[in-house]
Specification:
single chain
Length: about 200
């Protein structure tokens, strides 16, 4: 059965620290997700970039490699340390900050492109509403957000909450335009074929 309690704990810093310390992080494949890499190569990721829940920084570093001003926020300090070490090893300039995804307004900054890989599906109810409001605070009208999330098309009953198209439509009904919801894949170390996902492209109104 789905263990929602475990995935809800992914917003607890101490739990995240433990996961990164033990390597129990199936979303960390050592490379960018193909869905986001394709967006980057197409030029869809532009300007100042924010990756929310950046982990060890592969998407931030992908954007830095393209010459973009790239920032990642993450709760786990050891993940941030790993990301900074990668940046140094690769000779890339990127910024990594320890920040709560529900309190992005405190950054006092806005970004042209925001990436979310595997974070949206961890929130439900009031927390999901708070997360979408937090996103609004860092995205100016006309700017873009790309979300890669577990899909309700995934049949096995392990992992986090599976998100339906209707849930995305409800969550982003006000203040956003949903440009595309398309079938995609989240690559993970637990499944060679990856996990069925939605890639959602949004524009802030």
């Amino acid at each position: 059965m789905l263990d929602e309690s475990v995935y809800a704990r992914h917003q607890e810093p101490s739990f995240l620290e433990e996961l990164y310390e033990t390597g129990a992080t199936p979303w960390e494949t050592g490379r960018p997700q193909s869905a986001f890499l394709a967006l980057a190569e197409s030029g869809a990721i532009q300007g100042r970039v924010l990756d929310i829940g950046c982990g060890t920084g592969e998407h931030v570093l992908m954007c830095a490699q393209l010459g973009l001003d790239s920032t990642g926020v993450e709760l786990a300090t050891n993940a941030i340390r790993m990301a900074e070490e990668k940046a140094s090893e690769r000779g890339l300039t990127a910024r990594f900050l320890r920040y709560d995804a529900l309190k992005l307004a405190q950054l006092g900054e806005t970004f042209d492109t925001v990436l979310d890989c595997g974070l949206f599906h961890r929130f439900q109810g009031d927390e999901r509403t708070a997360y979408v409001d937090s996103l609004k605070s860092v995205v100016q009208p006309g700017k873009r957000v790309f979300v890669l999330s577990f899909s309700d098309q995934q049949e096995e009953d392990w992992g986090p909450h599976r998100v339906s198209r209707a849930e995305f439509e409800a969550a982003f009904a006000e203040g956003w335009r949903i440009d595309v919801i398309e079938e995609s894949t989240i690559e993970a170390t637990v499944d060679a074929d990856g996990v069925r996902a939605w890639l959602v492209s949004l524009t802030r109104l």
